[in-house]
Amino acid sequence: MKDFAFISDFDGTLTKKDFYKILSETYYKEELVPIFNSWKNGEIQDIEYLGYIFSNVHRSESELLEDVLSISFDPHAKTFIDQVKAAGGDFIIISAGSTYYIDKVLEENNIQGVDVYSNKGVFKDNGIHLDLDEHNEFYSNLSGIDKLIVVEKLKVNYKKIFYAGDSGPDLKPALVSDVVFAKDKLIALLKEAKKDFIQFEDFSELWDKVKTYL
To answer: Whose CA is closest to 116, among 86, 77, 145, 87?
Structure first.
């Protein structure tokens, strides 16, 4: 059993803005309103809304690569990941987005040796199409991947689990983690759930706090 793992959400936690929001705000106008309303009203699930935005963006693969590389990635994240590894821990990403762009962002920032649990995505027909496996042990019909199941499985391999997130899908995995770092919408949700957490803005703030728990 290893001493610890630091698990992080990707969109909005390791990045300034969710990739689906970048695409929707840049390339969609009125045509997105009906499906957005259906999503907010609970008529369709998160994965259906994201899948629509990703697959209907009408961008070539080279154009999409430009969009991916425009994602504002936390400039302090690589240093933090290196600190986690140097201390004998693992850094793990769990995202309800897609490996299609996560892998490219990590490569662009020269980040290696990080396990990524996310939805597989492939480029075709001028968009990103999610390739979901309903038989996968982590499958969720809500978001494609069940973050709670992933964290519960990882927990058996580590003495301590740190978790960082920013929104609703991060609540359940945060509740079963030992130490939680939160930003944005996750803050209010954790307060309501009466779960202790440490508020943060970027990854430059985290290592000094993490090492106090090791």
So the answer is: 145
Per-residue tokens: 191: 């307060």
Please, how many CA atoms are within 13 Å of residue 67, restricted to the half-sphere of its CB? 24
For residue 154, what are its two tokens?
Answer: 């990882």
Q: Residue 1 in 3-state DSSP?
A: coil
Question: How far is Cα 176 from Cα 99, in angstroms, rounded to an integer?
Answer: 24
Between CA 178 and CA 202 the distance in angstroms is 20
**Per residue in 27-59, pLDDT tens?**
998 989 999 999 999 999 999 999 999 999 999
Tens of pLDDT, residue by residue over 98-157, are: 999 999 999 999 999 999 999 999 999 999 999 999 999 999 999 999 999 999 999 999
| 71 phi/psi in degrees, rounded to 5 | -60, 130
The whole-angstrom separation of Cα 164 and Cα 145 is 17
pLDDT tens sequence across 149-200: 999 999 999 999 999 999 999 999 999 999 999 999 999 999 999 999 999 9
Q: Determine the Cα–Cα distance for residues 49 and 195; give it in Å rounded to an integer.
A: 29
Q: What is the rounded CA–CA span in Å between residue 201 and residue 206?
A: 9
